[in-house]
Specification:
Keywords: Chaperone. GO terms for molecular function: ATP binding; metal ion binding; protein folding chaperone; protein-folding chaperone binding; unfolded protein binding. Forms stable complexes with CPN60 in the presence of ATP. The chain is mainly beta. The protein has a domain of 66 residues: 10 Kd Chaperonin, Protein Cpn10, Chain O (Roll). It contains no helices and 8 strands. It has a 6-stranded antiparallel β-sheet, with no helix packed on it. A two-stranded antiparallel ribbon has the order 3-4. The chain is elongated, with a radius of gyration of 15 Å.
Length: 97
C-alpha cells in the first residue's frame, strides 16, 4: 500500500522501527529503556527546486535506515500500517550496520 504514495518535492516517507519488547531468549525489556528514534525509508520524493528552477535531489534512497527527530513529521495511515512524512532537512542522519 505504501508503494502507491509518492512524496512530493523533498519529502520522505518513513516507517518507524519499533524496538522489540523482549530479547531472543525471552527476557522482557522494561518500557523505560532508552529507545533510538529510527525508521526505514519507504519512498522518496524527486527533490526540491532552487531559485533558478534546478532540481536538488534528495540525499536518501529507499531502504535506508535513518535517525529521526523526536517531534515533527506528518503521520499517515495507509491500510493497517502507520507511516510518517518528513522533509529531507528534518532527517538527522543515516544509520549503518
Amino acid at each position: 500500500m505504501a508503494k502507491r504514495l509518492i512524496p512530493s518535492f523533498n519529502r520522505i516517507l518513513v516507517e518507524k522501527i519499533i524496538p522489540p519488547s523482549k530479547t531472543n531468549s525471552g527476557i522482557l525489556l522494561p518500557e523505560k529503556t532508552p529507545k533510538l528514534n529510527s525508521g526505514k525509508v519507504v519512498a522518496v520524493g524527486p527533490g526540491a527546486r532552487d531559485r533558478d528552477g534546478k532540481l536538488i535531489p534528495v540525499n536518501l534512497k529507499e531502504g535506508d535506515t535513518v535517525l529521526l527527530p523526536e517531534y515533527g513529521g506528518t503521520e499517515v495511515k495507509l491500510g493497517d500500517k502507520e507511516y510518517h512524512l518528513y522533509r529531507d532537512d528534518d532527517i538527522l542522519g543515516t544509520l549503518h550496520d
